[in-house]
Amino acid sequence: MKNKLIIHNIKAIYTSINKPPVKGENMKNIEVINNPYIVIENEKIIKIATGDFSQLKNNNTKLYDAKQKIIIPGLVDSHTHLVFGGSREHEFSKKIAGVPYLDILASGGGILSTVEATKKASFEELYNQAKKSLNEMLLYGVTSLEVKSGYGLDLETEIKQLKVAKKLNENHPIDIYTTYLGAHALPKEYKEKRDEYINQVIKDLQIIKQEDLADYVDVFCEVGVFNAKETEKILKAAKDLNFKLRVHTDEIKSIGGTKVSIDLKAKTIDHLMAINDSDIKLLKESNTIANLLPSTSFFLNKDYAPARKLIDSGVALAISSDYNPGSTPSENYQLTLQISGNKLRMLPNEILTAATINPAYSLDISGKVGSIEVGKNADLLLLDCKNLDYFIYHYGINHTYSVFKNGKLVIEKRRIVGE
Q1: Which of 135, 133, 127 is nearest to 164 (CA)?
Q2: Do 141 and 174 form a contact (C-beta atoms < 8 A)?
Q3: Structure confidence by residue, pLDDT tens digits, 192-207
């Protein structure tokens, strides 16, 4: 007889039930089920209903009292730089004092500082540091995560980062999906040899594919990094190897990266603070997700992406943390969602869609997670909140009560089970 878990005494379930990608006006359409129970068997949801569930119990049934908490799907953070060496707090005072980033970079700081620290760090050091962050993310209700390399800028270190991410995926409750970001920046030794480095990244793609180290390939298409033509060259090579694509672009200036990304059917286009109206129209007509990173704007005191314009134009949005040591050193994904309400002017229902089903779609996992539906994996976040609006309104704290991953209780009363 199969083991069965029934979660009962739930105040309400909040979930998107739209087929992704969920675009524009539909992002605010979610289902609310009051006073339900959820039946889980073999990691999956087999029943959602209201009323009496006593007839479903048998000797192998476990009951979990939700104590009138609300439940939403496990959160899906689809843009992070989880694995890196060191930290950059020594740059914080300079940043606050207004020292330009390029000056910090010229003095050996910025991304190049993290690259050096990541190269020097052992596999175990990177693993332990990333695991600590993963535990924090789980405490905030993240159950699925995208993780990029990009702090090696050489094949050996990029592989080390990706292998750390793969090992964490094997050992940690959070499901990790990996992205190769060799084209994150131009290494200082290639300053006068751009084409040589780009060709090396393309060559390295074959090794990454052979060793099955990444699901996706990403490029940072921006002024001072890689232009649209270079980005297209790398992405086409990746696509030819059957990698799926994710692209950093339009963070500072719009230089053609969005059109290149859409033409190549990228899964996400990320940042988009500088996106123009013609590219918004292209995005609306595609199934590419606009992946916004408001915590980065918050930390850097920069402009925010035009979320309202994107939604009102009919684009599908996701919200991600962009966790990294330079521009978003925080594992608090709930704060990212709360910033989305206050600064991006997104409604709580839209935020829920952008943190669950749309990012799940971008990671090709929406068939199993991202919403609370019969047949899907039981990735569930129980929140100590009166309602969904309260979750976004009451900002800066951890609202998690419990987390279920694949039907297994992994967080209980804001503590990792077993620790």
Answers
A1: 127
A2: no
A3: 999 999 999 999 999 9
Q: What is the pLDDT of residues 35-79, one digit of tens each?
A: 999 999 999 999 999 999 999 998 889 999 999 999 999 999 999
The residue behind tokens 């087999």 is 46
* Ranges of each domain in the chain: 4-73+371-416, 75-362
pLDDT for 244-302, tens place per residue?
999 999 999 999 999 999 999 999 999 999 999 999 999 999 999 999 999 999 999 99
Does residue 21 have a cis bond before it (omega within 30 degrees)? yes
Which residue is listed with tokens 């030819």? 240
Distances from the Cα of 163 to the Cαs of 107, 139, 204, 380, in angstroms? 30, 24, 15, 28
Q: How do residues 150-204 score in pLDDT, each as one tens digit? A: 999 999 999 999 999 999 999 999 999 999 999 999 998 998 999 999 999 999 9
Q: Superfamily for 75-362?
A: Metal-dependent hydrolases (3.20.20.140)
Cβ distance 188 to 220 under 8 Å?
no
Q: Which contacts qualify for 388-391: CB closer than 8 Å, 24 or more apart? A: 388/14, 388/32, 388/70, 388/72, 388/348, 388/349, 388/352, 389/348, 391/70, 391/72, 391/334, 391/337, 391/348
Question: Domain 4-73+371-416 carries which CATH code?
Answer: 2.30.40.10
Rounded distance between C-alpha atoms, residue 128 and residue 122, angstroms: 10
Which helix (H) or strand (E) is 105 found in, with range?
Answer: helix 101-106
- Please list the helix, strand and coil fractions of the chain in percent, rounded to the nearest 5, in that order: 40, 25, 40
